[in-house]
Specification:
Elements: H1 7-17, E1 22-25, E2 44-49, H2 54-67, E3 73-78, E4 92-95, E5 104-106, H3 112-141, E6 142-145, H4 149-156, E7 168-169, H5 175-180, E8 185-190, H6 195-210, E9 217-222, H7 227-230, E10 250-254, E11 261-262, H8 269-279, E12 285-286, H9 290-298, E13 311-317, H10 323-334, E14 339-345, H11 346-355, E15 362-366, E16 377-378, H12 384-395, H13 407-411, E17 416-422, H14 428-448, E18 455-461, H15 467-476, E19 484-488, E20 495-498, H16 507-518, E21 526-527, H17 542-549, E22 565-567, E23 570-572
Parallel strand pairs: 1-3, 2-3, 7-9, 8-9, 12-14, 13-14, 17-18
Antiparallel strand pairs: 2-4, 4-5, 8-10, 10-11, 13-15, 15-16, 17-19, 19-20, 20-21, 22-23
Amino acid sequence: MRKPLSTLSLHTFLQLMEAPLVSEVYEDPSSVQPPLFPYQQTPQVFLFAHPATEHLDRETATTLAWRLRGLALLLLVHRQSPAVKTPDEYNAAYRLPGKGLDVKYLTLHDLDEVLELFTDQEREEEEEEEEAEEREEEEDLDFGELDDEIAASVYEKRGNLPDVDSITHLTSENFHSVIAQSSLTVALFYLKWDAVSMAFLSSFIEVTERLAESMVQMSAVDCGEWTDLCAAQTGSSLPIPFQPITTFPTVLLLRPQEPAQHYRGMLGTEALHCFILLSSRASPVLLSTQKEVKSFLQEAPYPELTGFTPNRALGLFRTPTDAGVSLFTEAAKSLRGEVLTGLLTDELADKWAAEHAVKLPAVFVFPSWRTHTRPPTLSIPSSPEELLSHIKSALLHPLPELTVENLPSFLSLGKALLLLFVGEEEDEIGLRQNQALVEEMRGVVELGGGRMERYLACWIHLGRTPTGLSVLGSYLGSMPPLPALVLTHLPSRDEIYQYPMKFPIAAPSVLKWLQRVEDGKESPAGMLGDDSWPPPYDFFDFLKIMDMQEPDSAQQLTPADEDYVDGDDEVIAQGDVAEDEAPDSSSSRFPENNTNIHSEL
């Protein structure tokens, strides 16, 4: 046994010791299915038996099987079967785990060649692991033992600070006059000593350069210098349109005579640029011709967003003075940057209503993920908040694919996650298998009906979102074979449940398993841990040292739990701080329902 000495390796080895020494098959190796649980991560070795030498071939297979005990499964293929199509020039074959049905054929002259095949492979894997560990150690040395990649990046670029001359600097004195100059001002509130702020500042300036020809005014506030403005206390008779800023960096969209709008998306160039462009359009857009309606529904709102499909909502009313128009307009303002909204009235609205067999007033919702199907239709409720909630519900995908970008918005729903992890496809067969799994999950939602309202059925493609690998490993303590289905983020408890690997993922079976979890008949496979990030050493706990040196001063507060998700230079980091209140130590590894991005206060 050449695996590292660990509980998992020992358990796997003992399971292999219980497997049949030699299995005999009468079909071609390419038709033999990969091993089932619990041997799915085990290589398969095929030897061929001829009718004339069957007894000797079986003895040879048995001898090799003893030498491969704990390393691989050995199968003896009988060539007299018409199903065996392997040419006679080959006398052995093997299949590696995770390679689907791919089989490699060999012509061996010595049994030791098979052993060398697996030992060389393990040696290569060990060398790759050692190289990876060395790279990690080198990265750790770049910035001491804090292991803070963001701070390290800022530290390394400290001599190349971004040029901030392209943005307007807001102060307590010029705030109101600057905001009044433009219909839309985007303001970044930052701290120079905050690593995330400085990392995001470069992206903010890049967006500023992209919007140089637009009417959008890009600005920034150094909250280390203008503390009164960031605290929303300028001393001016004019009100400040936002609450005190306590998380950094924070981006606000400011319009004259309107409350500030928070940007709650990814801290990256593309996400911020897209949000600002969508926010700069009128909400709702008044559409007066059929051509304008077609353009609104089918064309990109800006050339820069070609290829991007936004969510859309279209309100239909008999007249511009209809009571529902004001409700729709208020909801549209709250959706700026996230949903394009349009307004139809008079004859055009009547025509649309007749074509789609709906009664006015009504709202059509066009989710970005829905294609060539009838859009959901909503009636007008009694309040903008209720209409806003209905629109967001209609935009929600029934089986969303989770990504780094959309995870916070789905977690904010407060539902338990029924989460399917699928691996990257290596061939057409793997692609069809993943598609079939997603269809089964869709069947769970449809078959479960109202019972599934408390759950958010979703999936993660680990090829497109490799961060999910560490998430899955942290859920269960080790990496299970894929696909893996887990139930997590239950509203009232921290347990994590894993769907039994011995059962296929099928809609009826999953629903029965969920019922067993609800009845308390299933044991949890893991727990959501406390993701606090304490200082690695006592002498790094600077706030504690300050409290000890100045006992009469106000108690220093440490940032609440933070989450960092790396991907394409985009960072999500979260923390909350409440004045005179200690941070909650029971937060989960994902952001909670609050929408703060990062805190250094």
